[in-house]
Amino acid sequence: MKFRNFGRVALALAATLALTFGAESCNYNYTEAYIFITGSQYNQVGAYRESNNDGQLRPEGVISSGGNDPVRAVLLNGGRYLYVLNEGKPTTDASGNITWSGANISLFSVGGRGNLSYQYSYYSQGEGSFRIATSIDGSYLYVLDEYQPGPTPNVTPGSPTQSAAYPCWDSTDHVYRPEGDITVFKVDPSTGRLFLLQNLQQQNAQGTPLTYFPLGCGPIDFKLDSNYLYTGESYDPATNQHQVVYAYAASATNGQLTQVPGGSQPIGTTSMSYLGVSANGLWLYVLDNGSNEIYTFSPGANGLLSAATGGAVANNATTAGMDAMTTDSQTKYLYVANTQSPGLNQSTSALSIFNVTPGTGQLTPSTPPTYGVGSTPVCVFEDPSHQYMYTADAGSSTVTGAAYDPLTGNLRNLTKGSTWNVVGTPTWCLYSSNTY
To answer: What is the residue-averaged pLDDT of the chain?
Structure first.
């Protein structure tokens, strides 16, 4: 009788232990990704560890960006190398000449626990560098420069008169400036080092190849989609068109950028602010802060853009200042980061959420149509586990996290807190799923 009672107790204990350990195994926590955030207040890059089971972020370290005003960053080679683009601090003299200090591309190796180790600095050919991207296979790195190089290194000249060399009007300083350009580097996959690529299609007055690829006036953003690089520009002096998107064929063989015939397309925007590409590569988005609308295009086999069904779609009426966007990994939903609200007593910063219609790409507002985040979000992304969405918020120097529902696209607060203080005045965010 005693044996039978002991057996019953043992079985009950075993069942309890099984349930306990089973519950713990379901909640087993591990590092899902390392998130890197650039900040302009102190010229820093911060690394943060993301927990899989609750989406919480924990700091792993902060390091100097290696220059002034880090504005963008990209990861290469499975997350082994981080490139931070430092735009540089501009100083304008009485004649309208801009001197850039601390402008470079800083290369960091990424070690265990997301630790960053500075390696080298590289320099784009033009000035005012503010966007950086990589080819799909990571063989080439592209830098978007606001201005082509002038006669003096690190100086953007200003001219009181318009000419072929200075066709672009600068309404702030009331001078004419050079057009923009793209600088291309070849990437050494084993070391991460960069090697400047010459433009084999165009030469300077001395008959030697250019070290950059010329653009029009006032470049705004660029994005790579498949084998085409799309660049948004304020004005094209060659065609006298405003608010255009250029399409360039990006060679995977030698890295050359070749403008697609007829590739200079007026978009219809009044003040485009951002170019984005859907996760499935089928749609190119252009955000227009002038009209507070989102334009959707389908890139063709020849690189030319065709407007998606329904044309431009209005952003949510309670939000404005579109600064960044992303789709979820399945391209079912589009999330747009807004920096401001046009109305009083409304949230100043929020994500607008849209459903993406399969096949046509048409956007329709989700329910609910917005989700509040920290002040002035500058970037937004879905984490690699497809459980969470994050923004980095320049106005509040925070990161905002949210739980993501892949069935509805809805976002909700995390159970253990959704806001973390990060490096001062964030400018960009990205993640590496390589957790070593």
So the answer is: 92
